[in-house]
Design brief:
The structure is a single chain. By secondary structure, this protein is mainly α. Strand 1, helix 2 and strand 2 form a beta-alpha-beta unit. The longest helix is centred in the last third of the chain and has 21 residues.
């Protein structure tokens, strides 16, 4: 709320992204993993990203693969399980690569 401080530890986002929709969606509103990783850059490294409607966990994947912490909330048990699996897979991959 209000103006964004010009002195920040993160860069400004470019404002336009172009990604293809995921081919094998596990949720009707699933976004591309790369898109959410790019958008996560608005949060400083080590910061916390909150997603109150977690769905299949793409925001969580973007958070953990870019060094941010993540809190996700999902009411649907099936989607919650999908999100947990996908985020845990991303964490494992990140540990293997990093």
């Amino acid at each position: 709320n209000g103006p964004m401080p010009s002195e920040r530890d993160v860069e400004c986002l470019p404002g336009f992204y172009e990604y293809s929709a995921p081919r094998d969606r596990e949720h009707v509103a699933q976004k591309p993993d790369g898109l959410m990783a790019d958008i996560a850059q608005i949060c400083k490294p080590g910061g916390v990203i909150l997603d109150p409607f977690m769905g299949s966990g793409t925001t969580g994947i973007g958070a953990v693969t870019t060094g941010r912490r993540f809190i996700g909330i999902e009411n649907d048990a099936v989607h919650f399980a999908t999100a947990c699996r996908r985020i845990e897979d991303a964490q494992r991959q990140t540990r293997l690569i990093g």
